[in-house]
Structures are given as C-alpha cells and as structure tokens.
Amino acid sequence: MRWGSCVAMGLAGALCSGAMVGAAAATLSVAVTGVDGDPVHDVVVVAEPRSEERPPLPARAAAPATVDQRGKEFHPWVSAVYAGTSIIFANHDDITHHVYSFSRARQFSFRLQADERRGPLAFPRPGVVVVGCNIHDWMIAYIYVSDSPWFSRTGKDGRARIEDLPAGDWRLTIWHPGVVDAAQYARNLTVTADRVMPVQIRLRKPLTETGPRPPLDNAGYL
Amino acid sequence: MRSLRFRILLLFVALLVAVQAITLFTIYGSMRQQVANNIANQLDVGRRVFLTQFNSRRQSLAVYSHVMGRDFGLLQTFHDDPKSLLVALNNHRRRVDADLAIAVDEQGLIRADTESPDATGEDFGLFDVSDEARRNAGMFLSVNGKTYQVVAAPLLAPNPIGRVYLGFVVDDALAREFQALTSLQVTFLAATADRGWHVIASTLPDPMRAELAQRYMGSPDTSGQHAEHLGDETWLTLPLLLADEPGTPVLALLQRSRDAALAYYKPWWREVVEVFLAALALALIAAWATASNAMRPVRLLVEQARAIGRGNYAEPIATRQGGELGELVEEFNHMQQAIAERETSIRHHAYHDGLTGLVNRYRLEQLAAERICEAESADRRLGVLIIDLNRFKDINDTLGHQAGDRLLREVGARIAAAVQPDDVVARLGGDEFGVLIDDLAVADIHSRLDALGQAVMRPYTLEGLTLNISIGIGVAIYPDHGHDAEALLQHADIAHFAAKEKHLRYALYDGAQDRYSLLRLSLLGELQAAMERGDLVLHYQPKFELARNEVTAAEALIRWQHPVYGLITPDEFIPMAEHTGNIHVLTAWVIRTALRQTVAWRDQGLAIRVAVNVSAHDLRRAEFVADIRAALADCRATPEMLSIEITESAVMADVEQAVSALDQLNDLGIECAVDDYGTGYSSMAQLRRLPVQELKIDKSFVLNADRNADDELIVHSTIELGHNLRLRVTAEGVETGAALELLRRLGCDYAQGYYISRPLPAESFEQWLQARAWIRGIAGSES
To answer: In whole angstroms, what is the distance from residue B596 CA to residue B590 CA?
Structure first.
C-alpha cells in the first residue's frame, strides 16, 4: 500500500500505513474563511486520493439531488454531486423558468411551467455545470460534479466535513464561483487515524461572487 | 492753395480720416476676433456634438452588445456550431446596422468574424471592456485596414464564456455625417503599428487631406485649438483624441477655415466701408461748407483790405456774423472809417492852403492836368491865371502879418467869388494866386479879366483903414499856350511877370517872352555859374566932364554872354534876379568886379570913379552898406573910387529906406546918384531930402533934346534944378554932337552916350582912355 504508508508517513510520525488501512477512517473538518476572516459558505471541498491504489469507492447515493427554482432563485446556489448522480429541477414558482446549461460537462435546456419538475437528469461527467435561466438573467446555479466521492460543501458557518475518509494520502482542493485561482489552495494531506482532521483554509483574495445576485430593482412581478 | 480755409478743411479731413481709420481698424479687429471667437465656439460646440454622437453610438452598440451577450442562439452555437454562430452574429450586426461583429472565446480566439469569415480560430485579443474603458467614444480597432469604433460585451451562459464585439466603421461617410451636424470639416486619423498616424477619413478635398496626413505623420499635436495652414487658407483646428490604447488610437480633427468665415462677412464689410466712404464724403461737403461759411467774413475782410490798399474806403463790410469774426469786421469798419477820415484830412492838408483854405500849388497842378484832359475831350479852352498883389510887402510891413493874412484871405475869397463855381482858385504861396478858368477864349479875356480885376481891386478895409491894392495877372490858355499843366503854369507865370514889368493889370502869354521863362527857371543856378565861368562881364561907359573936357568917371554896365542864348541884356535878367531874390548876389559881384578894375587902373595911373547901379532890393538889405565896406577893404579900394546909382523909381518905392541907405553910403564917403531921373514922378521935396550928389537925366529926354523944344526945356530945367540943389547933373543918351553942344551950353556937368563912346570892355576902355580920342573928337569939335 504505497499510498497508505505515505499517508501514515504524512501523519504524525511512526505509524505504519499498512497497519492503518482498512482499520482507520478519518473525518476532515474544513473551515474556510475569507480575507476578512469571516466564514465562507458554498465552498466545495474535494478530497482526492493520491495513491495509485485507489481506495474502495463508497456506494453511490441512490437518491437524486434537487435544484429548485423558488422565488426566482436557484436553490441551492452551489451544489456538489458525485459524478453519475441525477438531479431533479423543480419549479416551485408560479411562473415559467427556462433552465439551461451550455457547460461542457452537461448541456440541457428546458422550460418548466409553474410547479413543473424535470428529471432526474444524470450528470455523469465531472466538471462544473453552470445553470442559468433564459428568462431571468440573474438566476444562476453552480453544480460541481465531483469525480471523487469524498467531497463536501461549506455551510453558513464556513465549515464542511468529509466523513469516512480512508487513511492514505489525499489531495484536498476547493472550488467556489467567486474564488480566484482556486488551485493555490489545494493541499496534500495524509489520513492516518480514525479521527477528525481539522483543515483551515484562509482565502487570500476577496471573493468575486458571494452568492446569487437578484436584481435590486426587484419589482413584484419579477 | 494755402488758405486758412484749405487748412481748416485739411485738418477736418485728416481728423475724420484718422477717426474713421481707427474705427474701421477697430471694427475690423473686433470682427476678426469675433470670427475667431465664433469659430472657437463652433469648434467647441462641434466637439460636444461630436463626443455626444460618438458616445451615443457607443452606448447604443454597448446596450445591444449586452443583449447579444445573452442571446440564446449565440450561446447555444458558441461552442459547437461556428457556422451557425457566424450567421447568428451577422444577423445581430444587421439589426443594429453595425459594420463589424466578432465573437471571441475566453482566450481571445475568434469564434466568428462577420468581416473575415475565415478567421475563426485566429487570435483577436481581449480588450478591456470595463466601465472605465467604455466611456465616451469607447474603443477603436483596426481590422483588415479599416478602423472601427468598437464595443464589447461578455457572452454570458450565464457565466462569461467569451465576448462579442460590435463596431461602426470610421469612413468618409461618417465624416460627412458629422460635417452635416457640426458644419465643420472633420478628419479622422488613426495610429497603427505598421503605418503610424494616417488619415482614415476626411471631409477635406484630397490635396489638403494629403497635406494634413503629411503633417500629422509623427506625433500629432493634440493640445487644443490651434491654427493650421492648409492650402491657401488658415484653418482653426480642434484636435480631439477619441481613444487611445488599448486598441487603435484615433484622433478627430474638427476644422473651420477662418478665411471662409471672414469671407462670409465680406458683403457686410463692404457695406460698412461704403457707409464710411459716404460719411466721409458727406463730412467733406459739410466741412467745405462750414469752412467757407466761417471764412466768408475773413475773405470779405481780405477783399476789403485790398480795396483799402487801393485807396477805396467808401464801402463798409456788411455782415450779420456774430462772435469774434463779427467784432473783427466791425473793428475793421471802424478802422476803415478812421483811415478814410485821416486820409481826407491829410489830403486836405496836402491839397489845401492852410491860410486861405484854397487849394495849394500841388493840387492846382493836379486839377490843371484834369481840366486839360476834360477840355481836350470837350474841345474847349482852359485859362490858367497867375495873380499877385503889387506892393503886398508894404502892407505886410506897415499893417503887420495878421492884417496881411486877412488881406490874403479876402483876396482869395474875392477871386473865388468872381469866377465860376467850377473854376479853381489856388494860393500858390506868398501873395501869389493861381486860377483855372474853364472855357476862357482869347476873345473873352478882356471882359472876363476886367471883371475879375475890378472885383479884386475894390477897396479893402483893414484895421479901420481903407486900402487900395493893385494886381498883376498873367494868362496862358490851353491849347494856345501849352498842352500840359506845367507848361501852362510856367507860361502864365511868364505872362504875369511881363504884366508886372510893364505895369499892366494883366498880360497874355507871348511866345516872344519865352526866353524869360527859360532864363528865369535856370537863373538861380546859372547866375552863379556865369559869374564863375566869366560869362558875366562888366562894360564901362565913359562919363565926359564937359567943363574940363576930361573923362574922369565911367558907369559899369553888366553884360551876360550866355553860351546858349547869346548876349542877354540887363533889362532882361536884372528884373529876374530881383524877382527871384538873387539881385544882391549880382550886385555884390558887380561892385567887387568894378572895384578890382578901378584899383587896377589906379595902379596904372588912371584915376576913374566907377558908378555901379543898385536896385531897391539892394537898399532894403540891412547888410548892404556893410557888404560895400567889406568890398572896399577887400579890394584895397578907397570910397572915392566908387559911386552908387539908383533909379528914381527904386528910390520912390521906399523913400525912407533909400534915404537911410544912401545916408550910410555918404557916411562911408561914397557918392550917390539918382538914375533915370524924370521917370519916377518924384516931387521936388522928395528930391531935396535925398542925400545924393548927382542927378542923371533919363535918356528919353536927352535923345531928342537938340531937335525938340519940349525936351530941351525939360533938360534945361532939370539941370537948373540939379544945380539949385547943388547936385552935379549928368545927361545920358548923348548920341550927337549937337546934343553935346546943347548940354555944354545948358551948363550940364557930365555927358554920357554913344556920341562919346558905347560901353566898352575894360581893356578897350583902357585903350580908348589912353588914346584920348575924345580930344580930337568930342573935345575937338568944341574947339
């Protein structure tokens, strides 16, 4: 287990990687703060195994994810799904939306009447799918289709937990619509024990986007 | 033409022209300034219009480009369907009438280009499309040799996936469009890497466009409005840097020709100049009129001054002019009047005699000349009279000068009253008057002059005394006796002299008397010269002493051998000398000459007493006796060598004076004789009083005494009278032996005459005397 020993070596010292494999699973507790120190939500945190020998994949989630349209906004703003997951688009508004994506990872375009839903749509290809509404320019949703099953998304508190991370060497990356040059925040880490590994990420540049941006002159009918 | 009027006019015009020139200059300057301001203003407005237009074009493009950036058709075909993308893009371009539409991906690679459909995949570049860069005209890009005003918008799907560019080409049509809006010439220049700055569009004609391109090739001046010389004109130019890098820098030039703007004012300017010229002409006329008007009194004064200069004082200047000129005219009139009065006074004094108020000699001559002219044209005669009073001096001496003056005034008045009012009466000086009588014919003379004579000779009353005077009148008549005033007056004078001579009341001029006039006029000068030249000589006529048959005395007789007139007798020139007051000079000469001769004879042993004739004038001179005494001394002569003869009439003229003078001569030891006795009407009593030693019987009695009993009687009684008064008696005019015998028989003392000898020059007398011819002749006849 080359990548397992590496993980062990990466952790506190003298642990044998072989001894850990299969036995230990750790949890990554990631906290993302902005330049001002405030928590940043909707940051997708992905852990990818660095060893050649990939750890056994966890069972894929059977349930499809949902991207709702409610109050002329997509909910959630940022979704993170494991590749192959299906997503249901549901219109909870009393108006029609025209949901589309021209992203290379997944392209689609359909109209949803009031309270109509479409899907589940499969998102087999990893990548970022940017979803818009052709009727409401400001409506935007990001679907991060992850190649790795170990990922999470920060909440309001800026924290995300990646559970059941097998011991081994990992590469932790983040993605967010407003984070400039996200690759710089990638880091390698080694999981060795069944324990919670705190990871602190502090953004070095302000966010270019912080969330959905509904028009300010929001008349009632919009 | 340097009159005051001209100078005033010149000043006027110069002033006017200067003012107008300044005004025109100012107007022209402000007009140019106005034009410059207008152009600057126009350029500024042009600039604003220009930028507004560009901005609005950019905005409209920008708005549309943003719409395009959301266009579903474009977004749908962006990644996978280039052909559809190009068609869709071109469709959008057409909608907004843009000239260029390009879509690029996020790397700046062209996905579709409406101008170059084959350029897909080429690198176009990403240009800043931020709000900052989108201001004003936005961005310009040179694409395929053309320059476009370009805007860009992101393609949003809904995240940015690329950009879309929309552009308007900048070409001549655009320039013309702006020209139509701003009335300015519009030129666009662009700077590209390969060509530098170059003109991409312009409204200017090609040559100027080329000139401009040449000039802006380097780094153009974009610092604000300036003047450019293009072609033959000056262009006020406002450079406007529409956009700099990134993209293609584009410069717009807004221009307006100053010359063209000035040309716009040309008709107006011509009008202004015309108005000025008209004003100048009007002002000239007004100035001329004013100057003439102001100068009129001055011109009148000038004319008047000339008139006065010519002696015309008659007309004053009439003027209604007020002010200084009016006063001047008034003063001028006063002056003219004063001059006229003075001249009248001066002329009166010049022309009139102060005593009598009659005209004077000078005026008489003038008037005579005038009257002669009149008489000539009217074919009439003119009488010229010269009148004087006889013995006026006696009246003056006895009654005093005041009485004499009164008499002269009275005489003048009577003469004036006796002639016609038009006739002229003048006082010539002393007691001499001149009269011009119109139309006096020779035939009328007697009646006219008798009347005049009677009027003048009526008795006068002076100082309570009744006075009778006599006058002598000389008459000359035009044209009989002369043709000019000078000749007539001279001839009248001669005639007057003749009248006095002959004791006539009047005498008409006689041509035979003419020598007198010549003589008289030159006597004063010539007498002296004659004495010096030796033209005057003394001849001596022997006085034969009957009792002793001896010649012991001679009478000195003066002779004038005139080089021009020949021999002039004493009868001719002595009265002239008396009349002109020169007689004493002559007398003195005679006395001294005779004395010198007598002294010479004495020195030769010849004892001769020389008798010298003196006139009444000589006796009146106070210095007469003293002069003789001096002459005796000077000639080393003794008194018995000289005797003085004086005519009976001369003695009778002033008996008292004659007696006084003769007394003094006697005191000197000089014997005196009464000459021409028998013609002077002297009384026995008067004769008895005379201190004379000799009586000379006038020859008129002696000449015929031997043939005429009456004359013999007179001669006889005269001799008796003389002897009774213890005077020696001499008979003159003895021309025959019979006469001599008669005288001898009657007891006469001396005989004198041609029978004895005519008057002889001194030398001949000497020879005659030494030859003693009378012994054989005269004395011999007796024996």
So the answer is: 10
Q: Which residues on B lie below 8 Å from A101 (Cβ)?
A: 157
CA distances from B65 to B57, B59, B60, B129, B241 (A): 12, 9, 8, 11, 24
- Chain A CB contacts of B106 under 8 Å are none
Report the distance separating Cα B219 and Cα B239, nearest Å: 12
Chain A residue with CA closest to B69: the answer is A137
**B694 SS3 class:** strand
Most B-contacting residue of A69, A102, A140 (CB-CB within 10 A), to test interface = A102
What b/e readout covers B712-738, taking b as 16+ CB neighbours within 10 angstroms? bebbbebbebbeeeebbbbbbbbbbee
Nearest to A168 by CA among A25, A12, A14: A25
Question: Do A102 and B157 make contact, defined as CB atoms within 8 angstroms?
Answer: yes
Strand arrangement of the beta sheet that strand A97-103 belongs to: A78-82, A140-146, A127-133, A97-103, A106-112
Cβ-count burial B276-292 (b if 16+ within 10 Å, e if not): beeeeeebeeebeeebe
Whole-angstrom distance, CA of residue B601 vs CA of residue B599 = 5
Q: What letter would DSSP give residue A58?
A: P
Instruction: Give the ipTM.
Output: 0.73
pLDDT in tens, B68-109: 888 888 888 888 888 888 888 888 888 888 888 888 888 888
Question: Across the interface, do A102 and B75 touch by the CB < 8 Å criterion?
Answer: yes
Asked whether B501 and B575 are in contact (CB, 8 A), the reply is yes
Q: If you search the block for the tokens 């006096």, which residue do you land on?
A: B440
* Sheet bearing A196-202, strands edge to edge: A159-166, A25-33, A196-202
Lowest model confidence (mean pLDDT) among B53-62, B287-296, B765-774 = B287-296
Q: For residue range B645-684, what is the model confidence (pLDDT) as tens digits?
A: 998 888 887 788 888 889 999 999 999 999 888 876 677 7
For residue B113, what are the contacts with CB-CB under 8 A and spacing of at least 6? B86, B101, B102, B103, B119, B120, B124
Chain B residues 659-678 with CB within 8 Å of chain A: none
Pick the more confident residue, A18 or A121.
Answer: A121
Contact residues, B window 119-158, toward A, CB-based 8 Å cutoff: 156-158
User: If residue A174 lies in a helix (H) or strand (E), which one and from where to where?
Assistant: strand A168-175
DSSP string, B663-680: HHHHHHT-EEEEEEETSS
As a whole number of angstroms, the distance between CA B52 and CA B332 comes to 85
Across the interface, whether the CB atoms of A140 and B72 are under 8 A apart is answered no
Q: How far apart are CA B630 and CA B642, in angstroms?
A: 13
- Is the Cβ of A102 closer than 8 Å to some Cβ of chain B? yes
Q: What is the pLDDT of residues B228-244, one digit of tens each?
A: 888 788 888 888 888 77
**Paired strand residues for A132:** A100, A140
Q: Which tokens belong to A127? A: 């990548």
What is the nearest CA distance from B134 to chain A, expressed in angstroms? 21
Number of neighbours of residue B387 by Cβ within 10 angstroms: 28
- The answer to whether the peptide bond before residue A120 is cis (omega within 30 degrees of 0) is yes
Contact assignment for A102 to B156 by CB distance below 8 Å: no
Other CB atoms within 10 Å distance of the CB of residue B107: 10
Contact A102 B70 (CB under 8 A): no
Cα A186–Cα A76–Cα A184 angle in degrees, nearest 5: 10
The pLDDT of residue A5 is above 70: no
Report pLDDT digits (tens) over B172-191: 998 898 888 888 889 998 88
